[in-house]
């Protein structure tokens, strides 16, 4: 038999060891939380400093004339009319092409495609394409859209280029959002006699829409600020005219001549101004940066509203 004193001693030593282990883990948890807080504060302070400087330099330049004037060699009369119009048109083409294709490809790979070697290769390549530098997409678009398809230095070429750039991001985000849906939702729908398409359209897409919209936001926010692929396909740094209006041709309900028009975008205009030594152009670049930031936040707000609107209709 083991003496009671020995058993009590070993029990007390085990409890003490457990307390030391818990205290050590709590110390590491506290240190990790402290490092995370410091990293967050540092990133917030850097962003606040950059945004504050841009706000101070750019706010005095914001006026109605700044939005309705074309770029000029004189900083006092220079505006961003052609730049913000070109940005909206390019992003419109990008969203129309990339969002349906990306969501459709993600749904197919996750719900319809058979799990085999070919599917695995496609999944690996899609994931790798999400990290490819944007200049590679610009070189691809230069040879494919500009020269092979003959689109030239047009809005269509720029929109398709940025669509290729964000397509892997949308596909990956769509698949990750679909994977978060519990399997019992699918099984319950199949048990009620639903077809594959009914399960996808009535359950998979509505439930995964918040995650999908997050991926779309990330992709479009990346596309609106890209400069390298747009420069590669030949975007103009100075343009003093607007693309043709979609309603300019009375014989057609909607004209698509604007797709083949030359263009410039906000990042190109900012790059042009920031490369000049005059301080007035630097202030114009800061003002253009504020406008670009507001455009990005507006897209995010629209996506959040869409996500909230569809989330209210979901019945778990």
TrEMBL record:
Broad class of where this protein is predominantly found: membrane
Cellular compartments per GO CC: plasma membrane
GO molecular function: phosphate transmembrane transporter activity
Localization: Cell inner membrane; Cell membrane
Domain ABC transmembrane type-1: 84-303
Swiss-Prot/TrEMBL keywords: Cell membrane, Membrane, Transmembrane, Transmembrane helix, Transport
Domain of life of the organism encoding this protein: Bacteria
SUPFAM superfamilies, per database record: MetI-like
NCBIfam families documented for this protein: 3a0107s02c
Name by which UniProt lists this protein: Phosphate transport system permease protein PstA
Organism of origin: Candidatus Accumulibacter adjunctus
């Amino acid at each position: 038999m083991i003496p009671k004193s020995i058993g009590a001693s070993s029990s007390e030593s085990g409890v003490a060891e457990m307390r030391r282990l818990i205290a050590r883990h709590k110390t590491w948890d506290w240190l990790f939380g402290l490092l995370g807080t410091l990293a967050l504060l540092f990133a917030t302070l850097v962003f606040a400093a950059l945004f504050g400087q841009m706000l101070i330099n750019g706010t005095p330049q914001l006026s109605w004339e700044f939005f309705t004037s074309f770029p000029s060699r004189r900083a006092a009369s220079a505006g961003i009319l052609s730049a913000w119009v070109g940005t909206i048109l390019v992003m419109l083409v990008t969203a129309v092409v990339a969002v349906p294709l990306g969501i459709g490809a993600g749904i197919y790979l996750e719900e319809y495609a058979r799990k085999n070697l070919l599917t695995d290769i496609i999944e690996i390549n899609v994931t790798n394409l999400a990290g490819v530098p944007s200049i590679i997409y610009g070189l691809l678009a230069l040879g494919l859209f500009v020269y092979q398809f003959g689109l030239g230095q047009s809005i269509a070429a720029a929109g398709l280029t940025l669509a290729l750039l964000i397509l892997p991001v949308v596909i990956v985000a769509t698949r990750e959002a679909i994977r978060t849906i519990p399997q019992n939702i699918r099984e319950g729908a199949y048990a009620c006699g639903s077809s594959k398409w009914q399960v996808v359209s009535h359950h998979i897409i509505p439930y995964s829409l918040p995650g999908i919209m997050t991926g779309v936001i990330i992709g479009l926010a990346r596309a609106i600020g890209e400069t390298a692929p747009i420069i590669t396909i030949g975007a103009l740094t100075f343009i003093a005219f607007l693309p043709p209006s979609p309603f300019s041709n009375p014989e057609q309900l909607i004209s698509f001549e604007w797709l083949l028009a030359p263009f410039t975008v906000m990042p190109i205009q900012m790059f042009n101004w920031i490369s000049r030594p005059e301080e007035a152009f630097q202030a114009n670049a800061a003002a253009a940066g504020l406008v670009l930031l507001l455009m990005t936040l507006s897209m995010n707000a629209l996506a959040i509203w869409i996500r909230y609107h569809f989330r209210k209709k979901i019945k778990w």
